Amino acid sequence: MKKQVVHLAIYDTLADWETGHAIAHINQRQWQREPGRYSVSTVGLTLDPVTTSGGVRMIPDLVLADLDPGDSAMLILPGADTWIGGDTLAPFAAKARRFLDAGVPVAAICGATYGLAGEGLLDDRDHTSNVAYFLAMTGYAGGGRYRDEPAVTDRDLITAGATNPVEFAREILGRLDVYTPEVLDAWYRLYARSDASAFEVLQAATAQ
């Protein structure tokens, strides 16, 4: 089995909570259909350290300019204050276009959906975000495709709002086929609803 890399974009003011569930369980072998199939690598505009919203210092593994969609299983774009009010992170939106054109999935949450809207990537896809008027500020043409849901997947694009990191992770894990459908359902019930009965399903998967 060839290990595949999921790329996590990192930049200043990255919202720490938005991708934690997804990247932790991509890397955690427990319950997985093919344990160890994926790894997570970080990508930045440069190799300079970035500081998250929570004050965590992170150092990118890779420079964005060197990231080829053909070498990636997915690009995950967290939210950040730096998506709004400037074009600092525009290169990430442009790279997302390259990924989607190549048929490689992209997952964007919170402010990253704002950046993708500005890039025109939400004009012809069902999508969601924090609220509809948040994206409307970009002047994009996709307002009619907005869905008031925690997370939405349309073709190779996953979108979610800032308060829905578990639903965002569920869509990512499902798109990557990390778990069987039964295990993914149990995973979601446990982490989103604290459903104790779901743990029995996960324990059974561990024993296999």
Automatic annotation (TrEMBL):
<protein>
    <submittedName>
        <fullName>DJ-1/PfpI family protein</fullName>
    </submittedName>
</protein>
<dbReference type="InterPro" id="IPR029062">
    <property type="entry name" value="Class_I_gatase-like"/>
</dbReference>
<dbReference type="InterPro" id="IPR002818">
    <property type="entry name" value="DJ-1/PfpI"/>
</dbReference>
<feature type="domain" description="DJ-1/PfpI">
    <location>
        <begin position="6"/>
        <end position="173"/>
    </location>
</feature>
<dbReference type="Pfam" id="PF01965">
    <property type="entry name" value="DJ-1_PfpI"/>
</dbReference>
